[in-house]
Amino acid sequence: MKKQFLVIGLGRFGASVAATLTEAGHSVVGIDQSETSVQRMSESIADVIKCDATDADILESMGVSDYEAVLVCIGEKYIQNSILVTLLLKEKGAKKIIAKAGTRTQGRVLSKVGADTIVYPEKDMGERVARSLISSNIIDFLEVSPDVSIIEIPAPESIVGKNLIELNLRHKYGVTIISIKNSKSEIISPPSVNYVFQKDDILTLIGENKLLKKLRFTED
Questions:
Q1: Cα(116)–Cα(23) distance, integer angstroms
Q2: pLDDT surpasses 70 at 11
Q3: Percent of the chain with pLDDT over 70
Q4: How far apart are CA 217 and CA 38, in angstroms?
């Protein structure tokens, strides 16, 4: 069933959301103050408008209550605008408001002023990256950049009893071990090349996502 969505803010995240919804067959209206963003998105979605979403009269004229959901995708450094727009949308009767936040604090504020759902693009992207990296049980992750991540994993059985010289991780896999947490919860950082891996070690690795994705601790 075709639905209508309003996307406010056509930066990287907003543009991606708008394009994805359009590709899925839905009707999308995108608005942004940047002429460059508007022109860029004019080829991806049917309706793109250059305007200031913090203007109450403009939102009133757009009939925000007619949309299935309104997505507030304004950049985190303009959090004041996100808060104001969310407040206005709530006042104008938006059915559902989905707001982007960069931090938990921003998310809590946006929830308090009317956002129904908060999304954290960098965290969510990090989770998707982490899930796609390797088959091992990833304990934690941190997306350093769109191309580089830090992941924390339990030491695979195949490396127990070996040291870094034998494994040659940097040369073989293109990743680096930042630290090792042993069974006593002691942090060894940086680990010695002669350190022998133990069964309950937790490894923290850094590397390019494409290399982490290929990472396989196998006997070969």
A1: 24
A2: yes
A3: 90
A4: 47
Question: Tokens representing 23?
Answer: 């590709």
Mean pLDDT (whole number) for 200-218 = 81
CATH number of 4-119: 3.40.50.720
Question: Which range has the worst mean pLDDT, 1-10, 20-29, 132-141?
Answer: 132-141
DSSP code for 196 = B
Measuring CA to CA, which residue among 95, 45, 44, 47 is closest to residue 69? 95
127-158 b/e (C-beta count within 10 Å ≥ 16 → b): eebbeebbeeebeebebeeeebbbbbbebbee
Helical segments of the chain, H only: 12-23, 35-41, 56-61, 79-91, 104-112, 121-133, 164-167, 169-173, 209-214
pTM for the model? 0.61
* The CATH number fitting domain 124-214, selected from 3.100.10.20, 3.40.190.150, 3.30.428.10, 3.30.70.1450: 3.30.70.1450
Share of the chain above pLDDT 90, in %: 49
